UniProtKB/TrEMBL annotation:
Domain Enoyl reductase (ER) span(s) in chain numbering: 21-381
Family assignment from sequence similarity: Belongs to the zinc-containing alcohol dehydrogenase family.
UniProt-recorded name of the protein: Enoyl reductase (ER) domain-containing protein
Signal peptide boundaries: none
UniProt source species: Capronia epimyces CBS 606.96
Family annotation (InterPro entries): ADH-like_C, ADH-like_N, ADH_Zn_CS, ER, GroES-like_sf, NAD(P)-bd_dom_sf
Co-factor requirement: Zn(2+)
Alphabetized UniProt keyword annotations: Metal-binding, Oxidoreductase, Zinc
Length: 383
């Protein structure tokens, strides 16, 4: 599938992230901006949709010096190639693409087919490049950071690193489907890959997913796909727990501050606990409970973003005696160019109902509000 190629604009609309004046609150403003010229390894992409991920909220609410402002965030883009640099070989103008994280392709982990653990991951994904965009609404020219996750896709047009591009022109049927698939490049592959690739779940596993937003529900779907015999979803929002049941959960726990998660999970697992626990919350109390409810020789996989100064206390002798495994996980440890087509295949087979998880929004304020109160599992902005 391809779209008619139009002349690349020098101006576009983008959602600009300014340093917040209220702690833990983003300050995003839709502005007219201009684009710089793409480099040899970059493309200009016309976006049609961009998923909002919790990571966007984290990097839009951090105080300096943990990050820099102003900048354009967004890292779950879907769109079409408008222009391609001289060294780009991932596609041609008009091709439909999904955008994911970037990697260097040359370090040990990239060469070993684990690009999510690229030695330069933080630098080339979390940091932004100054003056990728320039605000046209400031009194004087104001450079804006770009290339967040190699893409900064909260914009109608953006500059993208080739490493962030997955060409899906031979897979996606139309533009409506392309918009639906926008979250595959981060949130959905993170949850699904954590269970598929990192945990390697199977029929013998009892799986607990702590927090069932878009990431957690993807993990539930993966556990179902791998025929895990017990799949327990934990969340505070009833509507999300209902979705978890529809995607394959065998049990749900509606949690609160008073919930004894360890006792409830052990009651559902004949006292053993879960062989696979996936935390998507980043909440330290939940993570501590997650480690406690992990079965002997089981594994706790951390994929939610905890506070930047968070530390986890572990009684090492007990940890040794139980044989538990504590694992960090970025992007599901998947190669997007290989795994995104696999997720689309599961969608077509009815094994990953993405359409039940996604809500489209033309206006970002409403998307953020409904994401915060739990009404929207996976908000996607349309451009």
């Amino acid at each position: 599938m391809s779209a008619d190629v139009q002349p690349t604009p020098t101006s576009t609309r983008a959602l600009v992230s300014y340093e917040p004046t209220t702690a833990s609150q983003v300050d995003w403003r839709l502005e007219d901006v201009s684009l710089r010229e793409p480099k040899d390894d970059e493309l200009v992409i016309r976006l049609v949709a961009t998923g909002i991920c919790h990571t966007d909220l984290v990097f839009g609410s951090l105080p300096t010096p943990f990050t820099t402002y102003p900048k354009v965030l967004g890292h779950e883009g879907a769109g079409y190639i408008e222009r391609a640099g001289a060294k780009v070989d991932v596609g041609k103008p008009g091709d439909a693409v999904l955008l994911s994280y970037s990697s260097c392709a040359t370090c040990r982990d990239c060469v070993d087919h684990h690009p999510a653990y690229c030695e330069s991951f933080a630098a080339i994904n979390y940091e932004t490049e100054t003056d990728t965009f320039v605000s046209k609404e400031a009194a004087t020219p104001l450079g804006l950071g770009g290339l967040f996750f190699g893409q900064s896709s909260f914009a109608n047009y953006t500059i993208v690193k080739q490493a962030s591009v997955v060409n899906v022109s031979s897979i996606v049927r139309d533009e409506s489907e392309l918009k639906l698939f926008a979250p595959l490049g981060c949130g959905f592959q993170t949850g699904m890959g954590a269970v598929d690739v990192v945990a390697q779940a199977g029929p013998g596993d009892a799986v607990v997913v702590l927090g069932v937003g878009g990431v957690g529900l993807s993990a539930i779907a993966a556990a179902k796909f791998n025929r895990s015999h017990t799949i327990i979803a934990v969340d505070r929002v009833k509507s999300k727990l209902q979705l978890a049941l529809e995607l394959g959960a065998t049990h749900v726990i509606e949690s609160s501050d008073d919930t004894d998660l360890v006792a409830e999970v052990k009651a559902l697992t004949q006292g053993a606990g879960a062989s696979i626990v996936v935390d998507t919350t980043g909440n330290m109390k939940v993570i501590e409970a997650g480690l406690a409810l992990t079965a002997n020789r089981g594994q706790l996989i951390i994929i939610g973003v905890p506070p930047m100064d968070a530390q986890l206390g572990v009684h090492l002798v007990t940890f040794m005696q139980t044989g538990k495994i504590l694992r960090g996980c970025i992007e599901g440890d998947v190669n997007p160019a290989e795994y995104i087509p696999e997720m689309i295949k599961r969608f077509r087979a009815g094994q990953f109902p993405i359409d039940k998880l996604v809500n489209f929004y033309p206006e970002f304020h409403r998307a953020l509000a409904e994401m915060k109160d739990g009404r929207s599992v996976k908000p996607v902005l349309v451009w």
